[in-house]
Amino acid sequence: MNKFSTLFLLLTATLLISCSDDDEQTEIAENEANYYALSVGNSWTYNVYRYNISSMEYEAQDFLVTGTITDTETINGETYYKFESTLIGEGTCDICLNVIGNKSLRDSLGYLIDSNGVPIFTKETTEPYLVRVEQFGEVYGEYDATINAVETPLGEFENVDYNKSYAILEDGSISAGTEKMYYRDGEGLQVRVISLVSSPDPFYMFALAESTIVEN
Question: What are phi and psi of 100, to 5 degrees?
């Protein structure tokens, strides 16, 4: 895997979060419209599938990945929710763990962002939003309001919101690879598709198997 592919796979950077007594009112206000299901104790377990280029099918991996919100932390006066991930089963997959956990996030005006201000997802605008600038070009995210379902090996996930992520390369062309994320209101991430910058074929798919959502 080249360095550009690695950078694109790790669009969501690692963050930390906690909460002090002064932040309780902020946390309560955010939870009143908790689109991303950001509450300590929430957890999501995903089946992981790797795409087989030869058969053009997703192959189930011998492990599950669980992401859990374990704590909060205040950074620059804002409350972030700390995600930690674990892998259950046979094999290893650092990319899988980094995609699902080992980061901290918060809802900011409809954008899911990390502690560096990097936007991860939105449902507020269909205009492309700049995620970050890399050596190979600029990475953008984009919300498509016309897509509200996705087909997976576990079946179809409906009533979801969809964002794609892609790179505009230095020569002005758009990357062959596109990442895809599907969230559901109040339930969090349902499906995520990881791709490499240089390949139009998907790499991994994460499909929600079960979740625990505490009441807001």
Answer: -90, -35
Q: Are 206 and 48 in contact (CB under 8 A)?
A: yes
Report d(CA 41, CA 173) in Å as an integer. 42
Q: Which residue has the tokens 């030869």?
A: 54
Q: What would the pLDDT profile of 116-129 be if each residue is shown by its tens digit?
A: 999 999 999 999 99
Give the tens place of pLDDT for each residue, 129-174.
999 998 889 999 999 999 999 999 999 999 999 999 999 999 999 9
- The DSSP line for 101-162 is SSEEEEEETTEEEETT--EEEESS-SS-EEEEEETTEEEEEEEETT--EEEETTEEEES-EE
Query: What pTM, to 2 d.p., does this model score?
Result: 0.83
